[in-house]
């Protein structure tokens, strides 16, 4: 058990039989009435973000999330196969569990998998990945004052806004948290 007064960003807790990670919190001490903690929590099972208010000093369950290194092998239809790097056990995840991550996932890529009491919650991508541009329009110099961009399609099918000097075949560093171009790799 953990007190809500000890909330930290990134802490995983169990509330109402669901597993949440703390995204944001604020201790509030009104002039009249009892103090409370206002928090923003992300459900690790379905990805929903909720706002919850707790009384100061209230205790809730702490969730121990296990992270393991795994390698993405291949997909067959809507099933994506991963292999544990230590035990070499293979397991499948459904496409619905990997919606955002599929924009960056390449075969033989190493990622981390999060699980709670044997239940797989999802995968954690590295903060950035190298992806090759497969389709983009040629950059045309024009009447641009600054920072002109164009759309580029990378090998995973993600469309990213990139500077005009990027060409087909270039390898780009892409931020996996926001899906944005960082630089050339």
The rough form would be described as flat
Order of helices and strands: EEEEEEEEEEEEEEEE
Largest sheet: 6 strands, antiparallel
Strand content: over 45%
Report on this structure.
With 185 residues, this protein is mainly β. Helices cover 0% and strands 55% of the residues. The protein contains no helices and 16 strands. The strands form three sheets. It has a six-stranded antiparallel sheet, with no helix packed on it. The chain has a five-stranded antiparallel sheet with strand order 9-8-7-10-11, with no helix packed on it. It has a five-stranded antiparallel sheet with strand order 14-13-12-15-16, with no helix packed on it. The protein starts with a strand and ends with a strand. GO terms for molecular function: translation elongation factor activity. This is Elongation factor P. Residues 67-121 form the Translation elongation factor P/YeiP central domain. One of its GO terms (biological process) is peptide biosynthetic process.
